[in-house]
Design a protein that fits this description.
This protein is globular. The longest helix has 24 residues. A four-stranded parallel sheet has the order 3-2-1-4, sandwiched between helices. The protein is built from five helices and four strands. It is about 40% helix and about 10% strand. The chain has about 170 residues and is of the alpha/beta class. β1, α2 and β2 form a beta-alpha-beta unit. The protein has one domain: Rossmann fold. Bound molecules: NADP nicotinamide-adenine-dinucleotide phosphate (NAP). NADP nicotinamide-adenine-dinucleotide phosphate binds next to α2 and α5.
Length: about 170
């Protein structure tokens, strides 16, 4: 069955932009969609999977909000991606998912700056060997990976609904 979240008419990304990175093997990204004018948030895009996701999507032209906790580290990542992709619409906005106060502040700031949110990628996550509590006294992994994202999604739901188009 066709995955409804996939573009209906995927294009070969290399035909659109010859610099689009294609990795060899079964994990190759073979889809391209013009995302110009779209706004995307990616949590934890300063590293790992989030960073790779941001890099690929940046080639498709959207505004990407890097929702991360470390400003200096994230600005370096943005600089690196910008040099490669020439997309100037990459923005850092501070978000610490383990603290619900920061989640609330992030959402308030985002909602005041942007009228829409086309895609929200709840990627950030941690794992821990020891039990620690967050500022709000929840277990830290649960607070960061689940509660923070759940609260964030709720606070951004109106922006997501406003932007939802039946195009994917
Ligand atoms: N890699 C795997 O094999 C694998 C497998 C299953 C699931 N996952 C999940 O996939 C996601 C990404 O994994 P990854 O391997 O790319 O991890 P990663 O390289 O460790 O990157 C995690 C990202 O999350 C951010 N982050 C951590 N705590 C945060 C907080 N409190 N607030 C905001 N951002 C926070 C980190 O920010 P900093 O740069 O500031 O640390 C980093 O950008 C995670 O949710 C992970 O659980 C990964």
């Amino acid at each position: 069955m066709m995955n409804p979240s996939m573009p209906k008419n995927p294009q070969d990304p290399r035909k659109v932009n010859p610099n689009f990175p294609i990795y060899n093997g079964k994990n190759a990204c073979k889809l391209y969609k013009d995302l110009t004018d779209q706004v995307i948030i990616i949590t934890g895009s300063s590293n790992g999977i989030g960073k790779s996701t941001a890099r690929l999507l940046t080639f498709m032209g959207p505004t990407i909000v890097f929702a991360c906790r470390d400003r200096a580290k994230t600005l370096a990542v943005i600089e690196e991606i910008q040099q490669e992709t020439k997309n100037k619409n990459l923005v850092f906005m501070r978000l610490d998912l383990s603290d619900l106060r920061f989640v609330r502040e992030f959402a308030k700031d985002f909602n005041s700056r942007y009228q829409k949110l086309n895609i929200l990628i709840n990627n950030a996550g941690i794992s821990m060997d020891e039990r620690r509590l967050s500022k709000d006294s929840y277990e830290m992994v649960f607070a960061t990976n689940y509660l923070g994202h759940f609260y964030l999604t709720n606070l951004l739901l109106e922006a997501l609904k406003r932007s939802h188009q039946a195009e994917w």
